[in-house]
Amino acid sequence: MTLIQTLRPEALAAPESGIVAVVNYGRLREGLIPLWAGEGDLPTPSFITDAASKALAGGETFYTWQRGIPDLRQALARYYSRHFAKTFPEEQFIVTGSGMHAIQLALDALAGAGDEVIYLSPAWPNFDAAAAIAGAVPVPVTLDHSGNGWSCDVEKIAAAVTPRTKALFINTPSNPTGWTADHETLRAILDLARARGLWIIADEIYSLFHYGHGRAPSFLDIAEAEDRVLFVNSFSKNWAMTGWRVGWIKTHPSLQQVFENLIQYSNSGVAQFMQRGAVAALDEGDAFVAEQVERARKARDLVCGILGETGKARFTVPQGAFYLFFTVDGITDSRAAAFEIVDKANVGLAPGTAFGPGGEAFLRLCFHRRLDQLEEAANRLASWMNTV
């Protein structure tokens, strides 16, 4: 028996990221425009890095509060008060080592071996893989796609529920589709969860990246205090902090100790100086976020305009997040197409095959970058489309 054969089957079955496979193929190409990853092109702003640097220089390098320093949890409460018009005590917030860590902790708390968790697909692939590694069974329910865009049929979710279902994972605004649930859809999902005794893991990381009026609709707009909803989130997107790996969970105060215990046995807490940067992001970053959302809106419109003019790209203009999820006439294998685009257009895109059922024919383009670079990338893609 080889060494690898002695590992857990769940670990062996963990898939290579379909996004990373393309990144590794093309990352060293000279002049390549990388639009494959879910991040912008700006470094973390100085008002955040300065706060972290000051704390680091000041000796805030010791073990710290595992659930997060009080200052950060209080800053989270202020953030929700401003953006969601809701008052929550700091006891409802747990600081995590990234949004991915928040999702893993939610799974640790809710689903064990053989339990089922339903998610909407196409989806960011990490949830599916994390659930499977934990021993749970991820169950995709595909969003509907038509000429009217992406939509969620809640009856399809209900039909997927079995006695083993423990939770629903709902990401809105959606990565990769940009689908954004309205309050009617959220209410129907919440009613289903209440009726079946299910938890909802609400991933609302892109709630401020919404191109309607103000932030996107949220379960917080309709949920009651005792509803079974865990909110998972991250500092990555809003404040250009992808490399910091800091996130949070908003949960019922009665669950605080449980999640603190789970943190103890996973990463044992986030570095205190990094949390100081996160405090600055929340308290001083509203203007920065607003600028980024407006920048992304202009980028979305630019890319959609150029690709739309080809007559070969098919897409729905995204309502939220910062991705264009599109198909190209004549292309059925998006994985092969992503590698070909690296070779022939020198642009990096993520293949839709990485996002599960319903995404196979699509390509994902992250448009959260400066306009001149996006214009060049879109023109390269348009030229490539004319050859297929």
TrEMBL record:
<feature type="domain" description="Aminotransferase class I/classII large">
    <location>
        <begin position="35"/>
        <end position="381"/>
    </location>
</feature>
<dbReference type="Pfam" id="PF00155">
    <property type="entry name" value="Aminotran_1_2"/>
</dbReference>
<dbReference type="InterPro" id="IPR004838">
    <property type="entry name" value="NHTrfase_class1_PyrdxlP-BS"/>
</dbReference>
<dbReference type="InterPro" id="IPR050596">
    <property type="entry name" value="AspAT/PAT-like"/>
</dbReference>
<comment type="similarity">
    <text>Belongs to the class-I pyridoxal-phosphate-dependent aminotransferase family.</text>
</comment>
<dbReference type="InterPro" id="IPR004839">
    <property type="entry name" value="Aminotransferase_I/II_large"/>
</dbReference>
<dbReference type="InterPro" id="IPR015421">
    <property type="entry name" value="PyrdxlP-dep_Trfase_major"/>
</dbReference>
<keyword id="KW-0663">Pyridoxal phosphate</keyword>
<keyword id="KW-0032">Aminotransferase</keyword>
<protein>
    <recommendedName>
        <fullName>Aminotransferase</fullName>
        <ecNumber>2.6.1.-</ecNumber>
    </recommendedName>
</protein>
<dbReference type="GO" id="GO:0008483">
    <property type="term" value="F:transaminase activity"/>
</dbReference>
<keyword id="KW-0808">Transferase</keyword>
<dbReference type="InterPro" id="IPR015424">
    <property type="entry name" value="PyrdxlP-dep_Trfase"/>
</dbReference>
